[in-house]
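pinned: reference chain
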Amino acid sequence: MAIMATRQKQEISFEVATQEKILLPHLPHRTITWIGGVHGGILADITEQIQNLLLQDSSEEINLIVTSHGGPTGIGMSFYDSMRSVYKPYLNTIGSGDVDSSGILIFLAGQKRFITQNTTMLLHLAGRTFETAKRFTTPDMESMIKEDKMKDFQYASVISERSQGKLTVTEVLDLMARNTVLTPSDAVDMGLAHAII
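pinned: its structure tokens
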């Protein structure tokens, strides 16, 4: 019975994808994976792999499977901006497992975005980890708060833009303030993913 329900769900998801004229990505051809945190090392590695695939054939699609618990927003934003505004590959992203925090920015860089049925997405406000013995002045703290608020706004703006008009920046900021976890269906309903696979 469980197998039948799963098959029906897959058929429904495929129908949703095909009705909207969205073809599911062909894997594993031209497929790379972002697995782990959002940090400079993986940013450089994934960007280099995408550059190499673009040199081979800039007109063919690239698939990026994303499983990430997140990391610094600036690094996630760097990847998003470079893919959307600089390199401009025809990028499909497939969210799998955890796609949290700035990992969502990596996922949203895709033109066509798919999510597996066992994936969750966590939205939250910016935060910092402090070294125990480090001392900060009041201006230091004010600068950090100003930067974090700016990062929150930028992050919310990207999510709003990629939601296909379904979420305002204010609504995204509210979801972030409530540490919201999205199901695959939520991601599709909010316009962040095109289909569940």
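why pinned: The mean pLDDT is 89. The longest helix spans residues 138-162.
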